[in-house]
Design goal:
By secondary structure, this protein is of the alpha/beta class. It is built from 13 helices and 13 strands. α4 links the parallel β5 and β6. α1 packs across α13 and α6 crosses α11.
Amino acid sequence: MGQKIAVVCNYALNPNRIGGMDRFYVEYDAKAKQLGYEIDWYFLNYESFDFYSGLTIFSANNENVERFFLEKVHQENLKYTILVTHFLALCTSFYKKAKLTGIHKTIAVDHNPRPLEGFPLSKIIKNKIKGVLYSKYINQFIGVSDYTRKHILKDYGFFLGKKTTVIYNGIDTSVFKKRTQENTNQFVVSSHLRHSKGIQDLILAVAVLDENIKNQIQIDVYGEGPYETELKEMTKANNIEGIIHFKGGSSELNELLSYYRYLLQPTYMECFSLSILESLAANVPVITTPVGGNLEIIQNGTNGYIFKAKDYLALAEILKNIVVGNLKIKNDVSFQIEKDFNLEKMVNEHIDLLLEVRI
């Protein structure tokens, strides 16, 4: 068939973090090759490890991955018929430059969260202008949630409605060990450590709890990021180092999640959280905020609890009521993930886009 795909991802591959998107990339690569496509991957950073051994990967070595891709294409006279992007800003000059290399179809997947307070006016105007100038170089816009789809149209122009759709994130539910009993009051956070993830509010929530409640809970935080030092200092300043433990990155969360009672996600910004899907797949309910696409998966009191972003007192109240037994979720919360948000469904829907653009 002779069609060659370039997938450009502003995403660093890490052997200590094998998550939902990593499994998606590997399954997507295998399925595309089965259908006769050639496929090259361009990532922000990659040092070889076994999980990705079957993929053809080029690393930007933490430099600008869009520029790296364009330079490599020009220097080596590479020819691609389809371009797929993940985690890139939409409607930029990159898409025009990529189209000029001979790419026939471009599919842009939007994983980018929006700020809780919205964009400033200057950014709103710039996005509208970019939508007019560069959206014509993108053949298909994909939002990872309905929230994201709506914001693509809001940000770049409602005229994009006919070529904007939703493909929900999905995960490989088979790799998750399920929680099968009511655990002790152990809570887990799985998150990049940056301010927008709201973990500082979790620290404040724990700090205001009565001592008899504090003494009954343990919270493990898995993840790395630029806000780690501040969070650790804040934990120390509030004298709760014996309660909140920073565990770093882990490639074994698919098994570790089952040892916890709830996932805590006090985020300010989200599109459609893979951490939420992974937690639910392990039969671990989620305590989170109503931002992004969270309400498209979490139903208050059914598979988790919702509190307003930044309201650490509301989060403290939820934690207290779980500990004293006033709040309980006893049903298995994994079934919906297995049915509606599985990896096979996600991969097939993305592959269908390739079949639609055969030339």
